[in-house]
């Protein structure tokens, strides 16, 4: 059964869609995600706390759309570079970009070996493990195990 990561917020989100304003058929996925994220009561500032954070969130939501199917590795490498020296995609605050990218990359991370995770995607794996343990993100899903020590090949 496919379970939405914010399943407890869905009724509230659907109730407040009218307050968010009409979601036009011309609105892109990023606009729709951002409009809906404004009404998640369990998460504050999902769109970013500052104008710079909001711009970075928008950039990464759009960047996700620019990667075609089958290019999860390129997206993951891009995230790997972004996460050098910071905790989350938009800096040091959890945002909707983290939620969206996490769920986009979950199948890719499931397919990686422990060795690949530790050698190619150190920052991304740190971020991924942190996000999967965030309350409300993966309550009913199986979490991916990450080794705490280095693998020597």
Automatic annotation (TrEMBL):
It comes from the Eukaryota. InterPro entries: Arc1-like_N, EEF1E1, Glutathione-S-Trfase_C_sf. Residues 69-134 form the Nuclear-export cofactor Arc1-like N-terminal domain. Pfam families: Arc1p_N_like. This is Nuclear-export cofactor Arc1-like N-terminal domain-containing protein. The lineage of its organism: Eukaryota, Metazoa, Chordata, Tunicata, Ascidiacea.
């Amino acid at each position: 059964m496919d379970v939405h990561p914010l399943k407890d917020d869905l009724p509230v989100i659907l109730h407040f869609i009218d307050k968010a304003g009409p979601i036009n058929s011309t609105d892109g996925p990023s606009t729709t995600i951002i409009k809906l994220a404004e009404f998640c009561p369990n998460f504050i500032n999902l769109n970013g706390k500052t104008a710079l954070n909001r711009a970075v969130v928008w950039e990464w939501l759009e960047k996700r759309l620019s990667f075609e199917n089958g290019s999860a590795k390129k997206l993951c490498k891009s995230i790997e570079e972004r996460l050098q020296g910071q905790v989350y995609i938009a800096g040091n605050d959890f945002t909707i970009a983290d939620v969206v990218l996490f769920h986009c990359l979950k199948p890719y991370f499931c397919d990686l070996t422990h060795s690949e995770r530790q050698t190619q995607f150190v920052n991304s794996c740190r971020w991924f493990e942190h996000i999967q343990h965030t309350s409300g993100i993966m309550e009913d899903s199986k979490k991916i195990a990450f080794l705490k020590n280095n693998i020597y090949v």
